[in-house]
């Protein structure tokens, strides 16, 4: 079966576009004619009407497509029909293309997990592993639902961190802009007072001199700032640089605790989802470790995995390597003894997530007044320097 895009007219002359699945183009045309449509254009392809929207593929698009697929499967829709339905959906073109290829491979007899791995969609390794586990247990729909929930959890966690820093960032940028405007347009108005530099207080001389120099070299300074911003953006796009910065930040007071708790919550949530879908413990630990963002936490969990492989209980290995808190060790230990490790890890993830949110609030409480004090201090220093210059000039005139 192949998918054909069509443009057709009904009996009243209205234009319809969409897609139909058929073995050949002639069969597709006959199917449309039975609907009372006159075919204007018919061609093979994956695109469907509004599915051809352009733009970057977002994580939210992938999550939505995966959750829709999971919903169809848990409702009893066969996997071939569910994937074929997604191939004819109005999702992003890359998603439509991926599901079309998956539908074709499924009809050839390939396993769903194999087609998902080869789809080219930006999915973490644990999603494919969950799909494979779901195939083995006969609970593919639930496995994909858990994968979608984990993806959504990580997406929301990143958004929380990003949104939490928007206001402080705006505050800092606005303050820096105010300082720059004062140096460019206010301070140069009093540059003539520099002719009496020997009689000016040091602060007045420094403010007026810096303002005059900034005004005279504005183009060069702006170019340097633009280059610095471009270099910073390019550097931050490199995973190694981001990991290094996060690792340094994780050792800072308050901020470090926030990052560690959020990363640990992500690890516990992912490990719980994998174990709940009967992924073997060692493979689950490897996948959960790969999802960590802080290098030193990833290395520590690697040591935990090696200890478990050597025969240690997970709770003992975590405690030996100081990977969690006392509450975390107790929850994992209880989960091991009761055979309910996945639910205990879910509880642990909720505890760390809530602790991370509280730390985030503390960080915001600290950042905002510090930024206000620093910016206010800079503006106050500029104003004080100008006032000292004016009063000194008046004293000399008298």
Structure description:
With 398 residues, the protein is mostly helical. It has 17 helices and 3 strands. The protein folds into 3 domains: 2-45; 59-163, Type II secretion system (T2SS), domain F (Receptor-associated Protein, Up-down Bundle); 190-398, Receptor-associated Protein. It has helices at residues 25-34, 59-74, 79-87, 93-107, 112-117, 125-137, 140-164, 166-186, 202-216, 218-236, 239-249, 255-276, 281-290, 295-309, 314-320, 326-338, 341-397; strands spanning 2-9, 15-22, 38-44. Helix 8 (166-186) packs across helix 9 and helix 16 (326-338) packs antiparallel against helix 17 (341-397).
Keywords:
mainly alpha; 3 strands; 6% strand; 398 residues; 3-stranded antiparallel beta sheet; Receptor-associated Protein; flat; 3 domains
């Amino acid at each position: 079966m192949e998918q054909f895009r069509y443009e057709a007219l009904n009996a009243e002359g209205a234009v319809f576009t969409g897609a139909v699945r058929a073995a050949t183009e002639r069969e597709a045309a006959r199917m449309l004619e039975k609907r009372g449509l006159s075919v204007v254009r018919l061609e093979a392809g994956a695109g469907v009407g509004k599915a051809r929207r352009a733009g970057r593929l977002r994580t939210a698009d992938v999550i939505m497509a995966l959750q829709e697929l999971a919903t169809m499967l848990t409702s009893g829709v066969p996997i071939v029909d569910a994937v074929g339905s997604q191939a004819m959906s109005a999702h992003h073109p890359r998603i439509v293309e991926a599901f079309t290829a998956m539908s074709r491979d499924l009809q050839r007899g390939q396993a769903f997990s194999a087609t998902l791995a080869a789809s080219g969609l930006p999915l973490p390794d644990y999603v494919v592993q969950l799909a494979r586990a779901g195939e083995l247990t006969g609970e593919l729909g639930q496995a994909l639902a858990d994968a979608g929930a984990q993806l959504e959890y990580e997406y929301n966690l990143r958004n929380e961190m990003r949104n939490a820093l928007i206001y402080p960032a705006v505050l800092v940028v606005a303050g820096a802009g105010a300082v720059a405007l004062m140096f460019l347009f206010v301070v140069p108005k009093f540059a003539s007072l520099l002719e009496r530099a020997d009689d000016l207080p040091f602060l007045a001389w420094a403010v007026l001199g810096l303002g005059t120099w900034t005004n005279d070299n504005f183009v060069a300074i702006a170019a340097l700032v633009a280059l610095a911003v471009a270099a910073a953006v390019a550097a931050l796009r490199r995973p190694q640089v981001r990991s290094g910065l996060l690792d340094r930040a994780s050792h800072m007071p308050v901020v470090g605790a926030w990052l560690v708790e959020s990363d640990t919550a992500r690890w516990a949530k992912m490990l719980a989802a994998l174990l709940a879908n009967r992924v073997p413990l060692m493979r689950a630990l490897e996948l959960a470790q790969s999802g960590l963002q802080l290098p030193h936490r990833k290395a520590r969990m690697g040591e935990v995995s090696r200890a478990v492989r050597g025969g240690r209980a997970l709770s003992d290995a975590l405690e030996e390597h100081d990977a969690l808190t006392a509450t975390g060790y107790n929850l994992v230990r209880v989960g091991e003894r009761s055979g309910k490790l996945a639910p205990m890890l879910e509880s642990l993830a909720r505890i760390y997530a809530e602790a991370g949110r509280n730390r985030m609030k503390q960080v915001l409480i600290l950042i905002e007044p510090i930024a206000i004090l620093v910016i206010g201090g800079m503006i106050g220093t500029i104003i004080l320097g100008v006032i000292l210059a004016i009063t000194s000039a008046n004293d000399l005139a008298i």
